[in-house]
Amino acid sequence: MKAYASARPLSKARYDRWSSELGTKAAPSYGRFRPPSLLGMIDTMKTFDLDACSDMLRKLRRERERIARSSSRTERADHATNAMITAWQMKDWVLVDAARDAPTHAAISSLCASSVGGTFNEKNFTKFLYKECPALEYCFLIATNSKHSAIFPQFDNPSVATTASLTAATSISLGDLGSTETGWEADRWVFKIVHSGVRKTDLEIVDEVIGYWSKFLLKHGIG
Question: How far is CA 163 from the centre of its chain?
Fold first, then answer.
C-alpha cells in the first residue's frame, strides 16, 4: 500500500489548531494521524488501495460505467447506490486534505466564506457543496438513507423523491458493421431523482458529480 502523505508526527498544538478550524474535538492520538472531519477519527489506512482523493474519483468513474452497463433493475440499483455513496464520501477525503495542507485549507476557507459565510468546517463545507453542485445533495440523501435506512429530519429534503422506470427497447442500425439489418437494444431500468418537478437520471447525477469533483481536485491540487 502507498505511504500516506501525512504519515508523520503531528504536534498537539498543530492538531488543536486544525481541530478548532474544522470544528472538531481532539482525538486521542497525535502520531500517524489524518486530521478528522468527524469526531475522534484517526488515520489507520484500513482500505483496499484507496489512499487518496484521486483513488476515490477513479472508483467513482468505474462505478459510473457499471451503472451504464447494468442489465437488470437489481444491478442498476446496486451500482447507482454505490456510486452515490462514493460521490458523497469524497467530501470527507477533501476535508482531510484541506486540514493537512495550509494553502488548500486557506483556499477552500475563502471559497466557503464568500459563498455561504462563516468559518470553514464540515457544516459550512456541506452548504458550499450543495450550492456549487446540487447533485451532491442527492448523493447525500441516497447515501445516508441507504446506509442507515433513515435520516434525521433536519438533514432531509422532503421535496426530493426517487423513482424507477423501464425504458422501452429501441432499434439500432447495424449499418456501420456492414449490415443492412436492424438490431435491438434491450429494455433498461433507470433510477431518477425527482426534485420540485425536475427529473434527473442516476447517470446524469453521477456525471455532474464526477465533473464537479474532477475540476475541484484539479483546481486545488488535491491528488
Answer: 21
